[in-house]
Amino acid sequence: MSFRFSHVLHLFFILSFSFSILAHNEQDPTTKIMEDFSGYPIHEPQFSASTSFSVDTENLQLQIDELSRYSDTPAPSVTRILYSEKDVLARRFIKNIMASSGLSVREDAVGNIFGRWDGREPELTAVATGSHIDAIPYSGKYDGVVGVLGAIEAINVLRRSDFKPKRALEVIMFTSEEPTRFGISCLGSRLLAGNDALANALKGTVDGQSISFFDAARSAGYATDQDDLSSVFLKKGSYSAFIELHIEQGPLLEDEGIPIGVITAIAAPASIKVDFEGNGGHAGAVLMPYRNDAGLAAAELALAVEKHVLESGSIDTVGTIGILELHPGAINSIPSKSHLEIDTRDIDEKRRNSVIEKIHQSAITIAKNRNVTLSEFKIVNQDPPALSDASIVKAMEAASKELNLNHKLMISRAYHDSLFMARVSPMGMIFIPCYKGYSHKPEEFSTTGDIANGVKVLALTLAKLSLA
Protein backbone atom coordinates (compact mmCIF):
# COMPACT_ATOMS: atom_id res chain seq x y z
CA MET A 1 0.00 0.00 0.00
CA SER A 2 1.46 3.38 -1.01
CA PHE A 3 1.90 6.19 1.48
CA ARG A 4 -0.54 8.43 -0.46
CA PHE A 5 -3.28 5.74 -0.50
CA SER A 6 -2.88 4.93 3.19
CA HIS A 7 -3.03 8.64 4.01
CA VAL A 8 -6.33 9.07 2.12
CA LEU A 9 -7.75 5.90 3.70
CA HIS A 10 -6.82 7.14 7.15
CA LEU A 11 -8.60 10.45 6.41
CA PHE A 12 -11.69 8.51 5.25
CA PHE A 13 -11.91 6.64 8.57
CA ILE A 14 -11.57 9.89 10.50
CA LEU A 15 -14.33 11.52 8.46
CA SER A 16 -16.63 8.50 8.83
CA PHE A 17 -16.20 8.46 12.59
CA SER A 18 -16.71 12.19 12.79
CA PHE A 19 -19.97 11.89 10.84
CA SER A 20 -21.31 9.34 13.34
CA ILE A 21 -21.10 11.86 16.20
CA LEU A 22 -22.48 14.83 14.27
CA ALA A 23 -25.72 14.91 16.25
CA HIS A 24 -23.81 15.58 19.45
CA ASN A 25 -21.95 18.68 18.22
CA GLU A 26 -23.04 22.22 17.29
CA GLN A 27 -20.72 22.26 14.29
CA ASP A 28 -20.34 19.31 11.93
CA PRO A 29 -16.85 17.95 12.81
CA THR A 30 -16.64 16.38 9.33
CA THR A 31 -16.91 19.83 7.84
CA LYS A 32 -14.37 21.19 10.32
CA ILE A 33 -11.84 18.47 9.49
CA MET A 34 -12.34 19.00 5.76
CA GLU A 35 -11.93 22.76 6.20
CA ASP A 36 -8.81 22.31 8.33
CA PHE A 37 -7.38 19.87 5.81
CA SER A 38 -8.10 21.99 2.74
CA GLY A 39 -7.70 25.44 4.26
CA TYR A 40 -10.99 26.62 2.73
CA PRO A 41 -14.55 26.80 4.07
CA ILE A 42 -16.88 24.04 2.83
CA HIS A 43 -20.10 25.93 3.60
CA GLU A 44 -20.83 29.63 3.83
CA PRO A 45 -20.89 30.92 7.42
CA GLN A 46 -24.36 31.74 8.67
CA PHE A 47 -25.10 35.29 9.75
CA SER A 48 -28.34 36.25 11.44
CA ALA A 49 -29.89 38.56 13.97
CA SER A 50 -28.59 36.29 16.71
CA THR A 51 -25.33 38.11 16.09
CA SER A 52 -25.20 41.13 18.39
CA PHE A 53 -25.90 44.28 16.40
CA SER A 54 -24.72 47.58 17.82
CA VAL A 55 -25.74 50.83 16.10
CA ASP A 56 -23.86 53.89 17.32
CA THR A 57 -26.95 56.11 17.29
CA GLU A 58 -25.27 58.99 19.11
CA ASN A 59 -22.45 59.29 16.59
CA LEU A 60 -24.79 58.78 13.65
CA GLN A 61 -27.05 61.62 14.83
CA LEU A 62 -23.99 63.84 15.34
CA GLN A 63 -22.96 63.15 11.74
CA ILE A 64 -26.46 63.99 10.47
CA ASP A 65 -26.44 67.23 12.46
CA GLU A 66 -22.94 68.18 11.32
CA LEU A 67 -23.75 67.52 7.67
CA SER A 68 -26.81 69.78 7.97
CA ARG A 69 -24.51 72.70 8.74
CA TYR A 70 -23.23 72.63 5.16
CA SER A 71 -26.18 74.71 4.01
CA ASP A 72 -26.86 77.97 2.19
CA THR A 73 -29.84 78.72 4.45
CA PRO A 74 -29.96 78.93 8.24
CA ALA A 75 -30.98 76.06 10.53
CA PRO A 76 -33.28 74.27 10.87
CA SER A 77 -33.61 74.41 7.08
CA VAL A 78 -31.05 72.84 4.74
CA THR A 79 -30.22 74.04 1.24
CA ARG A 80 -27.44 72.20 -0.56
CA ILE A 81 -27.28 72.71 -4.31
CA LEU A 82 -25.25 70.65 -6.77
CA TYR A 83 -21.59 71.72 -7.14
CA SER A 84 -22.00 74.71 -4.82
CA GLU A 85 -19.36 75.51 -2.21
CA LYS A 86 -21.45 73.88 0.51
CA ASP A 87 -22.01 70.81 -1.66
CA VAL A 88 -18.26 70.42 -2.17
CA LEU A 89 -17.64 70.68 1.58
CA ALA A 90 -20.40 68.16 2.28
CA ARG A 91 -18.87 65.75 -0.23
CA ARG A 92 -15.51 66.02 1.55
CA PHE A 93 -17.29 65.27 4.83
CA ILE A 94 -18.82 62.08 3.38
CA LYS A 95 -15.53 60.93 1.88
CA ASN A 96 -13.77 61.40 5.22
CA ILE A 97 -16.40 59.32 7.03
CA MET A 98 -16.16 56.60 4.39
CA ALA A 99 -12.38 56.49 4.75
CA SER A 100 -12.53 56.45 8.56
CA SER A 101 -14.87 53.44 8.29
CA GLY A 102 -12.22 51.55 6.34
CA LEU A 103 -13.80 51.95 2.91
CA SER A 104 -11.75 52.58 -0.20
CA VAL A 105 -13.11 55.74 -1.81
CA ARG A 106 -13.39 56.74 -5.46
CA GLU A 107 -15.39 59.27 -7.49
CA ASP A 108 -16.56 59.32 -11.09
CA ALA A 109 -16.66 62.18 -13.60
CA VAL A 110 -19.91 63.71 -12.26
CA GLY A 111 -19.16 63.19 -8.57
CA ASN A 112 -20.92 59.97 -7.69
CA ILE A 113 -18.92 58.80 -4.66
CA PHE A 114 -18.24 55.11 -3.95
CA GLY A 115 -16.96 53.61 -0.70
CA ARG A 116 -16.04 49.92 -1.00
CA TRP A 117 -15.48 47.12 1.50
CA ASP A 118 -13.81 44.31 -0.43
CA GLY A 119 -15.19 40.80 -0.09
CA ARG A 120 -13.22 37.59 0.19
CA GLU A 121 -14.22 36.58 -3.36
CA PRO A 122 -13.29 39.65 -5.44
CA GLU A 123 -14.40 38.09 -8.72
CA LEU A 124 -18.04 38.29 -7.57
CA THR A 125 -20.15 41.38 -8.25
CA ALA A 126 -20.67 43.63 -5.23
CA VAL A 127 -23.82 44.44 -3.27
CA ALA A 128 -24.45 48.19 -3.22
CA THR A 129 -26.42 50.59 -1.06
CA GLY A 130 -26.68 54.36 -0.79
CA SER A 131 -28.64 57.53 -1.50
CA HIS A 132 -28.02 61.27 -1.91
CA ILE A 133 -27.14 64.31 0.23
CA ASP A 134 -28.15 67.26 -1.98
CA ALA A 135 -31.12 69.22 -0.63
CA ILE A 136 -33.70 71.47 -2.26
CA PRO A 137 -34.02 75.03 -0.88
CA TYR A 138 -35.31 75.22 2.70
CA SER A 139 -35.69 71.49 3.15
CA GLY A 140 -34.73 69.11 5.98
CA LYS A 141 -31.67 67.13 7.04
CA TYR A 142 -32.87 63.51 6.73
CA ASP A 143 -33.99 63.08 3.10
CA GLY A 144 -31.31 61.00 1.37
CA VAL A 145 -28.83 61.60 4.18
CA VAL A 146 -30.16 58.66 6.24
CA GLY A 147 -29.47 56.41 3.25
CA VAL A 148 -25.84 57.56 2.98
CA LEU A 149 -24.69 58.00 6.58
CA GLY A 150 -26.96 55.13 7.64
CA ALA A 151 -25.39 52.90 4.99
CA ILE A 152 -21.89 53.68 6.24
CA GLU A 153 -23.05 52.92 9.78
CA ALA A 154 -24.51 49.62 8.52
CA ILE A 155 -21.01 48.73 7.34
CA ASN A 156 -19.68 49.67 10.78
CA VAL A 157 -22.35 47.46 12.40
CA LEU A 158 -21.21 44.49 10.32
CA ARG A 159 -17.55 45.16 11.10
CA ARG A 160 -18.28 45.30 14.83
CA SER A 161 -20.15 42.00 14.48
CA ASP A 162 -17.03 40.38 12.93
CA PHE A 163 -18.86 39.80 9.67
CA LYS A 164 -16.68 38.89 6.68
CA PRO A 165 -18.36 39.70 3.35
CA LYS A 166 -18.17 37.20 0.52
CA ARG A 167 -19.28 39.76 -2.06
CA ALA A 168 -17.89 43.26 -1.68
CA LEU A 169 -20.20 45.84 -0.12
CA GLU A 170 -20.28 49.33 -1.63
CA VAL A 171 -21.85 52.56 -0.41
CA ILE A 172 -22.81 55.05 -3.14
CA MET A 173 -23.48 58.75 -2.64
CA PHE A 174 -25.36 59.78 -5.78
CA THR A 175 -24.91 63.16 -7.41
CA SER A 176 -27.94 65.47 -7.60
CA GLU A 177 -31.00 63.36 -6.85
CA GLU A 178 -32.89 66.64 -6.61
CA PRO A 179 -33.55 68.62 -9.83
CA THR A 180 -32.83 71.98 -8.19
CA ARG A 181 -29.96 73.37 -10.25
CA PHE A 182 -30.28 71.95 -13.76
CA GLY A 183 -33.86 70.68 -13.71
CA ILE A 184 -32.75 67.03 -13.94
CA SER A 185 -33.66 64.69 -11.11
CA CYS A 186 -31.48 61.69 -10.20
CA LEU A 187 -28.75 63.00 -12.47
CA GLY A 188 -25.99 60.75 -11.11
CA SER A 189 -28.01 57.53 -11.08
CA ARG A 190 -29.52 58.24 -14.53
CA LEU A 191 -25.98 58.45 -15.90
CA LEU A 192 -24.86 55.34 -14.03
CA ALA A 193 -27.73 53.55 -15.79
CA GLY A 194 -26.11 54.46 -19.12
CA ASN A 195 -28.27 57.34 -20.37
CA ASP A 196 -26.62 58.51 -23.61
CA ALA A 197 -29.35 61.07 -24.33
CA LEU A 198 -28.77 62.75 -20.97
CA ALA A 199 -24.99 62.70 -21.37
CA ASN A 200 -25.37 64.52 -24.70
CA ALA A 201 -28.03 66.92 -23.42
CA LEU A 202 -25.76 68.01 -20.56
CA LYS A 203 -23.34 69.50 -23.12
CA GLY A 204 -25.89 72.27 -23.72
CA THR A 205 -27.48 72.46 -20.28
CA VAL A 206 -27.23 75.65 -18.19
CA ASP A 207 -28.63 76.69 -14.82
CA GLY A 208 -30.71 79.75 -13.95
CA GLN A 209 -27.58 81.93 -14.01
CA SER A 210 -26.56 80.61 -17.45
CA ILE A 211 -23.68 78.60 -15.96
CA SER A 212 -23.15 75.46 -18.00
CA PHE A 213 -23.28 72.03 -16.40
CA PHE A 214 -19.66 71.35 -17.28
CA ASP A 215 -18.41 74.69 -15.96
CA ALA A 216 -20.22 74.02 -12.70
CA ALA A 217 -18.87 70.46 -12.52
CA ARG A 218 -15.31 71.60 -13.16
CA SER A 219 -15.58 74.28 -10.48
CA ALA A 220 -16.24 71.41 -8.06
CA GLY A 221 -13.35 69.32 -9.39
CA TYR A 222 -15.25 66.97 -11.71
CA ALA A 223 -15.42 66.33 -15.48
CA THR A 224 -11.91 67.72 -15.75
CA ASP A 225 -10.76 65.84 -18.85
CA GLN A 226 -13.50 66.16 -21.45
CA ASP A 227 -17.24 66.44 -22.03
CA ASP A 228 -17.62 62.70 -22.67
CA LEU A 229 -19.45 61.20 -19.69
CA SER A 230 -19.53 57.60 -20.92
CA SER A 231 -16.97 56.69 -18.24
CA VAL A 232 -19.77 57.12 -15.68
CA PHE A 233 -21.97 54.44 -17.28
CA LEU A 234 -22.28 51.07 -15.55
CA LYS A 235 -22.92 47.84 -17.40
CA LYS A 236 -26.11 45.99 -16.50
CA GLY A 237 -25.24 43.50 -13.78
CA SER A 238 -22.41 45.61 -12.35
CA TYR A 239 -23.92 44.92 -8.92
CA SER A 240 -25.65 41.77 -7.74
CA ALA A 241 -28.10 43.91 -5.75
CA PHE A 242 -28.82 47.49 -4.73
CA ILE A 243 -30.74 48.53 -1.59
CA GLU A 244 -31.64 52.08 -0.52
CA LEU A 245 -32.56 53.10 3.03
CA HIS A 246 -34.82 56.17 3.11
CA ILE A 247 -37.31 58.05 5.24
CA GLU A 248 -40.84 57.36 4.03
CA GLN A 249 -41.69 61.00 3.18
CA GLY A 250 -45.28 60.00 3.93
CA PRO A 251 -47.35 59.30 7.06
CA LEU A 252 -48.32 55.63 6.71
CA LEU A 253 -45.63 53.97 8.83
CA GLU A 254 -45.95 56.49 11.65
CA ASP A 255 -49.77 56.36 11.59
CA GLU A 256 -49.79 52.56 11.72
CA GLY A 257 -46.96 52.26 14.26
CA ILE A 258 -44.87 50.08 11.93
CA PRO A 259 -41.07 50.57 12.08
CA ILE A 260 -40.08 49.17 8.66
CA GLY A 261 -41.48 49.57 5.17
CA VAL A 262 -40.39 47.04 2.54
CA ILE A 263 -40.85 48.59 -0.88
CA THR A 264 -42.27 46.48 -3.69
CA ALA A 265 -42.43 49.16 -6.43
CA ILE A 266 -41.51 52.78 -7.17
CA ALA A 267 -44.07 54.96 -8.96
CA ALA A 268 -43.36 56.13 -12.47
CA PRO A 269 -42.71 59.90 -12.67
CA ALA A 270 -43.17 62.20 -15.63
CA SER A 271 -42.54 65.94 -15.96
CA ILE A 272 -44.21 68.33 -18.41
CA LYS A 273 -43.41 71.93 -19.37
CA VAL A 274 -46.22 74.06 -20.85
CA ASP A 275 -46.13 77.59 -22.26
CA PHE A 276 -49.08 79.76 -23.31
CA GLU A 277 -48.76 83.11 -25.15
CA GLY A 278 -51.41 85.84 -25.36
CA ASN A 279 -51.47 89.54 -26.20
CA GLY A 280 -51.17 91.08 -22.75
CA GLY A 281 -52.23 94.67 -22.22
CA HIS A 282 -53.31 97.16 -19.58
CA ALA A 283 -55.36 95.67 -16.74
CA GLY A 284 -57.81 98.59 -16.83
CA ALA A 285 -57.97 99.52 -20.49
CA VAL A 286 -58.53 96.14 -22.15
CA LEU A 287 -62.12 95.00 -21.65
CA MET A 288 -62.84 91.39 -20.66
CA PRO A 289 -64.36 90.24 -23.99
CA TYR A 290 -61.22 91.35 -25.85
CA ARG A 291 -58.60 89.68 -23.68
CA ASN A 292 -56.24 86.84 -24.61
CA ASP A 293 -55.08 86.08 -21.06
CA ALA A 294 -52.21 83.58 -20.89
CA GLY A 295 -52.48 83.57 -17.10
CA LEU A 296 -56.08 82.37 -17.10
CA ALA A 297 -55.16 79.69 -19.63
CA ALA A 298 -52.54 78.43 -17.19
CA ALA A 299 -55.00 78.54 -14.29
CA GLU A 300 -57.57 76.58 -16.28
CA LEU A 301 -55.00 73.95 -17.23
CA ALA A 302 -53.95 73.60 -13.58
CA LEU A 303 -57.55 72.73 -12.68
CA ALA A 304 -57.72 70.35 -15.67
CA VAL A 305 -54.67 68.47 -14.34
CA GLU A 306 -56.43 67.96 -11.01
CA LYS A 307 -59.60 66.79 -12.81
CA HIS A 308 -57.82 64.22 -14.99
CA VAL A 309 -55.82 62.82 -12.07
CA LEU A 310 -58.91 62.43 -9.88
CA GLU A 311 -60.77 60.71 -12.73
CA SER A 312 -58.03 58.10 -13.28
CA GLY A 313 -59.80 55.66 -10.97
CA SER A 314 -56.78 55.09 -8.73
CA ILE A 315 -55.50 56.75 -5.57
CA ASP A 316 -51.99 56.05 -6.85
CA THR A 317 -52.35 58.64 -9.64
CA VAL A 318 -51.13 62.08 -8.58
CA GLY A 319 -50.45 65.38 -10.31
CA THR A 320 -48.86 68.62 -9.15
CA ILE A 321 -48.40 72.08 -10.67
CA GLY A 322 -45.08 72.83 -9.00
CA ILE A 323 -44.20 75.92 -11.03
CA LEU A 324 -46.52 78.59 -12.45
CA GLU A 325 -44.92 81.76 -13.78
CA LEU A 326 -46.59 84.81 -15.37
CA HIS A 327 -45.03 87.47 -17.57
CA PRO A 328 -44.56 90.36 -17.11
CA GLY A 329 -45.61 89.70 -13.52
CA ALA A 330 -47.15 93.08 -12.71
CA ILE A 331 -50.47 93.49 -10.89
CA ASN A 332 -51.78 95.96 -13.46
CA SER A 333 -50.72 94.04 -16.57
CA ILE A 334 -52.61 91.21 -18.27
CA PRO A 335 -50.24 88.21 -18.51
CA SER A 336 -48.92 87.86 -22.03
CA LYS A 337 -47.04 84.64 -21.25
CA SER A 338 -47.46 81.84 -18.75
CA HIS A 339 -45.25 78.88 -17.92
CA LEU A 340 -46.27 75.75 -16.01
CA GLU A 341 -44.27 72.71 -14.90
CA ILE A 342 -46.38 69.67 -14.11
CA ASP A 343 -45.39 66.53 -12.18
CA THR A 344 -47.47 63.38 -12.74
CA ARG A 345 -46.85 59.98 -11.13
CA ASP A 346 -48.38 56.53 -10.95
CA ILE A 347 -47.27 52.95 -10.33
CA ASP A 348 -49.14 52.09 -13.56
CA GLU A 349 -47.25 53.54 -16.53
CA LYS A 350 -50.13 53.12 -19.00
CA ARG A 351 -52.57 54.90 -16.69
CA ARG A 352 -50.12 57.75 -16.08
CA ASN A 353 -49.50 58.17 -19.80
CA SER A 354 -53.24 58.29 -20.41
CA VAL A 355 -53.50 61.18 -17.93
CA ILE A 356 -50.65 62.99 -19.71
CA GLU A 357 -52.46 62.69 -23.04
CA LYS A 358 -55.66 64.07 -21.50
CA ILE A 359 -53.68 67.01 -20.09
CA HIS A 360 -52.27 67.64 -23.56
CA GLN A 361 -55.72 67.62 -25.16
CA SER A 362 -56.99 70.00 -22.48
CA ALA A 363 -54.11 72.38 -23.17
CA ILE A 364 -54.97 72.42 -26.88
CA THR A 365 -58.67 73.05 -26.17
CA ILE A 366 -57.96 75.77 -23.59
CA ALA A 367 -55.63 77.59 -25.98
CA LYS A 368 -58.28 77.51 -28.72
CA ASN A 369 -61.13 78.64 -26.47
CA ARG A 370 -59.14 81.48 -24.93
CA ASN A 371 -57.55 82.53 -28.23
CA VAL A 372 -54.00 82.10 -26.94
CA THR A 373 -51.12 80.12 -28.41
CA LEU A 374 -49.92 76.84 -26.90
CA SER A 375 -46.30 77.56 -27.73
CA GLU A 376 -44.87 74.53 -25.92
CA PHE A 377 -46.08 71.23 -24.49
CA LYS A 378 -42.94 69.26 -23.73
CA ILE A 379 -42.62 66.00 -21.83
CA VAL A 380 -39.26 66.46 -20.13
CA ASN A 381 -39.00 62.93 -18.78
CA GLN A 382 -41.33 59.97 -18.80
CA ASP A 383 -39.71 57.25 -16.74
CA PRO A 384 -41.15 53.75 -16.31
CA PRO A 385 -41.96 52.40 -12.85
CA ALA A 386 -39.53 50.04 -11.15
CA LEU A 387 -40.35 46.82 -9.35
CA SER A 388 -38.28 45.61 -6.43
CA ASP A 389 -36.58 42.29 -7.01
CA ALA A 390 -38.44 39.40 -5.34
CA SER A 391 -35.28 37.92 -3.80
CA ILE A 392 -34.33 41.28 -2.27
CA VAL A 393 -37.85 41.78 -0.91
CA LYS A 394 -37.58 38.32 0.64
CA ALA A 395 -34.20 39.18 2.19
CA MET A 396 -35.52 42.47 3.64
CA GLU A 397 -38.58 40.72 5.06
CA ALA A 398 -36.43 37.96 6.58
CA ALA A 399 -34.09 40.54 8.13
CA SER A 400 -37.02 42.41 9.67
CA LYS A 401 -38.44 39.21 11.15
CA GLU A 402 -35.09 38.10 12.57
CA LEU A 403 -34.74 41.49 14.23
CA ASN A 404 -38.30 41.23 15.61
CA LEU A 405 -39.36 44.36 13.72
CA ASN A 406 -42.82 44.55 12.22
CA HIS A 407 -42.81 45.49 8.56
CA LYS A 408 -45.25 46.58 5.90
CA LEU A 409 -45.13 45.86 2.17
CA MET A 410 -45.72 49.19 0.41
CA ILE A 411 -44.98 51.20 -2.72
CA SER A 412 -42.90 54.36 -2.98
CA ARG A 413 -44.87 57.21 -4.49
CA ALA A 414 -41.79 59.42 -4.40
CA TYR A 415 -39.07 58.39 -6.80
CA HIS A 416 -35.48 57.81 -5.81
CA ASP A 417 -32.11 56.85 -7.25
CA SER A 418 -33.28 53.25 -6.83
CA LEU A 419 -35.64 53.79 -9.77
CA PHE A 420 -32.64 54.09 -12.07
CA MET A 421 -30.37 51.63 -10.26
CA ALA A 422 -33.06 49.05 -11.07
CA ARG A 423 -31.79 49.32 -14.67
CA VAL A 424 -28.33 48.29 -13.48
CA SER A 425 -29.10 45.57 -10.93
CA PRO A 426 -31.87 43.95 -8.88
CA MET A 427 -33.21 46.63 -6.51
CA GLY A 428 -34.97 47.03 -3.18
CA MET A 429 -35.78 49.82 -0.71
CA ILE A 430 -36.26 50.08 3.04
CA PHE A 431 -38.44 52.86 4.49
CA ILE A 432 -38.47 54.13 8.07
CA PRO A 433 -41.10 56.43 9.62
CA CYS A 434 -40.77 60.20 9.61
CA TYR A 435 -42.64 62.74 11.70
CA LYS A 436 -46.14 63.32 10.22
CA GLY A 437 -44.75 62.27 6.86
CA TYR A 438 -43.03 65.65 6.53
CA SER A 439 -40.27 65.98 3.96
CA HIS A 440 -38.74 68.68 1.78
CA LYS A 441 -39.31 71.10 4.66
CA PRO A 442 -37.34 72.01 7.81
CA GLU A 443 -39.72 70.01 10.05
CA GLU A 444 -38.52 66.76 8.47
CA PHE A 445 -37.51 64.37 11.29
CA SER A 446 -36.88 60.73 12.15
CA THR A 447 -36.07 59.47 15.64
CA THR A 448 -32.72 57.85 16.40
CA GLY A 449 -34.62 54.68 17.27
CA ASP A 450 -36.32 54.53 13.88
CA ILE A 451 -33.04 55.26 12.11
CA ALA A 452 -31.30 52.53 14.13
CA ASN A 453 -34.01 50.04 13.14
CA GLY A 454 -33.50 50.90 9.48
CA VAL A 455 -29.73 50.59 9.79
CA LYS A 456 -30.06 47.15 11.41
CA VAL A 457 -32.42 45.85 8.72
CA LEU A 458 -30.12 47.26 6.04
CA ALA A 459 -27.03 45.71 7.66
CA LEU A 460 -28.60 42.28 7.97
CA THR A 461 -29.99 42.43 4.43
CA LEU A 462 -26.55 43.42 3.09
CA ALA A 463 -25.01 40.51 4.98
CA LYS A 464 -27.52 38.03 3.55
CA LEU A 465 -27.04 39.29 -0.01
CA SER A 466 -23.26 39.40 0.37
CA LEU A 467 -23.20 35.70 1.23
CA ALA A 468 -25.54 34.76 -1.63
TrEMBL record:
Pathway in which this enzyme or protein is active: Nitrogen metabolism; (S)-allantoin degradation; glyoxylate from (S)-ureidoglycolate: step 1/1
Protein's recorded name: Ureidoglycolate hydrolase
Family the entry assigns: Belongs to the peptidase M20 family.
Source taxonomy: Eukaryota, Viridiplantae, Streptophyta, Embryophyta, Tracheophyta
Keyword Repeat: no
One Gene Ontology CC term in the entry: endoplasmic reticulum
Keywords assigned: Endoplasmic reticulum, Hydrolase, Manganese, Metal-binding, Purine metabolism, Signal
PANTHER family, per the entry: ALLANTOATE DEIMINASE-RELATED
Gene3D superfamilies: 3.30.70.360, Zn peptidases
GO molecular function: hydrolase activity, acting on carbon-nitrogen (but not peptide) bonds, in linear amidines; metal ion binding; ureidoglycolate hydrolase activity
Main subcellular location of this protein, as a coarse class: endoplasmic reticulum
Listed cofactors: Mn(2+); Co(2+); Ni(2+)
Originating organism: Papaver somniferum
InterPro entries xref list: Amidase_Cbmase (IPR010158), Bact_exopeptidase_dim_dom (IPR036264), Peptidase_M20 (IPR002933)
